[in-house]
């Protein structure tokens, strides 16, 4: 059985975390967003996007920002804009609000500069945090949970976890390669509308490595179980807990302390750790402050 607790959202979803996300709409606003998050206890994202992007590249960046801001793990979002970016902050905030998310906006140029924007942003973030202050965890039905699996390498635990989740009534979103699972599951493009629940879906065109975390967040996952490639280190995500499973390679052995568990621990240990993570237990990446936002660019920066 899958017995866990979560923060229930007005739209019917539930989150394993209850973050206020401070989201810079452009790379130029990242410092202000970080300062606001640091001063208030929100979480921020560092990225290289939002300026001098055109066509499909700009459209996808905006869509991914919206998806992250509306993750079930995000209780409210503060958008920080500069004022002259391609991906305009106030329009991004408006689209996020149209999706039912609680949101505020702070513009650096509107505020009169970075220092002033930090003060304005801190006030706005404090209001959003107050809105979430009374939120409490409650039992959540498995049907409201979607677990992401990043299968960058083969592991017997991938298929075992996917099967157990499906049997428990939870939804599963998969990126990467996992043996015959791709042949048996439906396929969907990444960064698209979420399929109906319950579902088991392979996300295609999801980028490489840690870029796949964003595709899983866009699919509405509450937690990610990561099986990094044997030549890749484990990393966390800004709004979604990432439970990293170690394989057999010199690099993984050298970084053993950065992983949550290993292939050899078995499915029962992985299942217990996953449930504990949904319930609020921090992953190793969360304890270390590992938070990577990596989005594949579709076009060259102008």
Quaternary structure state of the chains depicted: single chain
Under the CATH scheme, which architecture of the largest domain would be assigned? 3-Layer(aba) Sandwich
Structure annotation, total helices: 11
CATH class category label of the largest domain: Alpha Beta
What is the topology, as strand order, of the major beta sheet? 10-11-9-8-12-13-14
- What does the average pLDDT come to? 89
Q: What sequence of helices (H) and strands (E) makes up the elements?
A: EEEHEHEHEHHEEHEHEEHEEHEHH
In percent terms, what proportion of residues is strand?
15-25%
Report, as a whole number of angstroms, the end-to-end distance.
51 Å
Overall outline: globular
Count every beta strand, where a strand is a DSSP E run of 2 or more residues. 14
Major pleated sheet: 7 strands, parallel
Residues in helices, as a percent range: 25-40%
What is the radius of gyration computed over CA atoms, rounded to a whole number of angstroms?
A: 19 Å
Q: What's the CATH topology label of the largest domain?
A: Rossmann fold
* Structural class by helix and strand composition: alpha/beta
* Unreliable segments of 5+ consecutive residues: none
């Amino acid at each position: 059985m899958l017995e866990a607790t979560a923060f229930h959202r007005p739209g019917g979803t539930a989150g394993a975390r209850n973050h206020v996300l401070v989201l810079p709409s452009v790379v130029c606003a990242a410092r202000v967003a970080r300062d606001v998050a640091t001063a208030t206890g929100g979480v921020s994202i560092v990225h290289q996007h939002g300026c001098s992007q055109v066509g499909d590249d700009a459209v996808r960046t905006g869509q991914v920002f919206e998806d992250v801001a509306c993750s079930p793990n995000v209780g409210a979002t503060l958008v920080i804009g500069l004022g002259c970016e391609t991906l305009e902050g106030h329009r991004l905030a408006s689209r996020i609000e149209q999706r039912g998310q609680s949101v505020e906006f702070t513009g650096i140029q509107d505020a009169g500069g970075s220092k002033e924007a930090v003060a304005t942003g801190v006030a706005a973030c404090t209001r959003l945090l107050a809105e979430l202050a009374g939120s409490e965890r409650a039992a959540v039905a498995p049907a409201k949970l979607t677990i992401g699996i990043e299968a960058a390498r083969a592991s017997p635990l991938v298929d075992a976890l996917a099967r157990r989740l499906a049997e428990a009534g939870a939804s599963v979103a998969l990126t990467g390669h996992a043996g015959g699972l791709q042949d048996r599951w439906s396929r969907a493009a990444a960064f698209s509308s979420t399929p109906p629940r319950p579902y088991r879906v392979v996300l295609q065109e999801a980028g490489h490595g840690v870029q796949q975390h964003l595709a899983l967040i866009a699919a509405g996952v509450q937690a990610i179980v990561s099986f990094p490639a044997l030549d890749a280190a484990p990393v966390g995500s800004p709004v979604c807990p990432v439970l990293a499973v170690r394989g057999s390679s010199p690099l993984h052995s050298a970084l053993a302390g950065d992983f949550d568990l290993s292939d050899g621990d078995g499915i029962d240990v992985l299942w217990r750790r996953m449930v504990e993570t949904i319930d609020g237990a921090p992953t190793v990446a969360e304890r270390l402050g590992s938070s990577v936002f990596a989005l594949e660019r579709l076009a060259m920066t102008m």
